[in-house]
Design a protein that fits this description.
Elements: H1 3-29, H2 34-57, H3 81-108, H4 111-118, H5 121-132, H6 140-158, H7 168-191, H8 197-217, H9 226-229, H10 232-260, H11 262-266, H12 272-283, H13 290-308
Helix pairs in contact: 1-10, 1-12, 2-3, 2-8, 2-10, 3-7, 3-8, 4-7, 5-7, 6-13, 8-10
C-alpha cells in the first residue's frame, strides 16, 4: 500500500486516541481509578488479540492449520531472550509506565501542564531518533512543519486560558510519560523489521498488564469490582477503550511506525489534543475559543508542510 494510506491510518489512530481522554473522564466520574481503567482495557485487548492470533495462525486448538512445510508461527515467544526483554520494554514504555506517570501527574499538576508536556513527544522523538539514526532526521521542510505543529499544539491545549503553574513533581511525571513514549518509539524501531505488528502489539498488552499487577498485588489499589464493570455505560466505554483504542489502534500504530518511520509517524500525535478538545466540546460542553481554532490551523498547516515531500 502507498504511504498516503499509512498517513491516513496514523491520523485516524491519533484521532481515536484523542477521544479516549473524554471516555476515560466519564469512567473516572463513575468511580473507576486510572489504574483500574488501564488494567481492564489492556486485559480486554490482550485476550481478544491472543484469540485472534490463535485463530489466524493455528495452534492445534482451532481448525486453521498452516500450509505443509511452512515455518511454525511465533505466537508466545520471541526469537531470543534479548528480544523478549525488548518486548518487556515495549510493555512498560508504551503501557504501564506511560499511562501511570501521565495519570498520576494529573494529581500533582494541572491538566494543561500535563497535556503540553506529554504532547511534546513528537519534538523529543525527532531529536532523539535523529541523533541515533541519520535516516530518521527531518528535512528542513519537515523541521519547519514540526515547529509550526508544535506551536499550534500549545495554542490548542491552552484554548485561550494562558495560566501555567509550575509543579516540580507533577511536571516531572508528565515529562517521564513523554520520554516513555519516546523510548517506546526507539525500542519498536529495533524489532519492527523482525516481528509482525500483530505479534508486537500483543506483547505490549501482555507486559503492560503484567507490570501493572504489582500496583494491585501490593495493596496500593483494589481490583475493579465486577458489579461496577458490568454496568452498561461503564462496560460500553471499557469495550471501546479495549477493542478500538487499545487493540486496533496499537496494531495500526505499530504498522504505521514500521512503514513511515518513528519520527514521521509520531508527528501526527500533535492532532491528539485537537480531537480531545473537539470531543470534549461535543460531549462535555467544554468551550472552544479562537485560540483553539488558530492552533488547529497551525497544526494542520505544519503537518501538511512536514509531510508534503513524502
Amino acid at each position: 500500500m502507498s504511504t498516503k494510506f499509512y498517513h491516513l491510518l496514523a491520523v485516524m489512530t491519533v484521532a481515536i486516541w484523542g477521544t479516549t481522554f473524554v471516555w476515560t473522564k466519564l469512567l473516572l466520574q463513575s468511580g473507576l481509578s486510572p489504574a483500574q481503567i488501564f488494567l481492564t482495557r489492556f486485559t480486554i485487548a490482550y485476550l481478544l488479540l491472543t484469540a485472534w492470533m490463535l485463530v489466524r495462525q493455528g495452534t492445534g486448538i482451532f481448525s486453521y492449520h498452516p500450509q505443509k512445510g511452512a515455518a511454525a508461527p511465533r505466537i508466545f515467544r520471541s526469537q531470543s531472550w534479548r528480544d523478549e526483554l525488548r518486548m518487556l520494554g515495549l510493555g512498560v514504555l508504551g503501557g504501564s509506565l506511560y499511562f501511570m506517570t501521565e495519570n498520576v501527574a494529573l494529581l500533582h499538576t494541572t491538566a494543561t501542564n500535563t497535556s503540553l508536556i506529554v504532547c511534546s513527544c513528537p519534538l523529543f522523538t525527532s531529536i532523539v531518533l535523529g541523533c541515533i539514526y541519520p535516516a530518521e532526521r527531518l528535512s528542513r521542510r519537515g523541521r519547519w512543519g514540526t515547529l509550526l505543529a508544535f506551536v499550534g499544539m500549545i495554542l490548542v491545549v491552552l484554548n485561550g486560558r494562558f495560566v501555567l503553574q509550575l509543579s516540580p513533581l507533577g511536571d516531572a511525571l508528565a515529562l517521564a510519560s513523554c520520554m516513555s513514549w519516546v523510548g517506546y518509539s526507539l525500542v519498536i524501531k529495533t524489532v519492527s523489521e523482525r516481528y509482525s505488528a500483530l505479534f508486537l502489539t500483543r506483547k505490549v498488552f501482555f507486559y503492560g498488564v503484567l507490570t501493572i499487577l504489582p500496583w494491585f498485588l501490593f495493596g496500593l489499589e483494589s481490583f475493579p469490582s465486577l458489579s461496577i464493570l458490568l454496568r452498561p455505560a461503564i462496560l460500553g466505554n471499557l469495550l471501546f477503550l479495549g477493542c478500538v483504542a487499545s487493540m486496533l489502534c496499537y496494531l495500526s500504530w505499530n504498522k504505521c511506525m514500521a512503514r513511515l518511520g518513528a519520527v514521521t509517524c509520531t508527528n501526527w500525535v500533535y492532532i491528539n489534543p485537537l480531537t480531545t478538545i473537539l470531543f470534549a466540546w461535543l460531549i462535555l460542553d467544554e468551550p472552544l475559543t479562537r485560540c483553539f481554532l488558530a492552533g488547529a490551523s497551525l497544526i494542520l498547516f505544519g503537518l501538511w508542510i512536514g509531510t508534503r515531500h513524502k
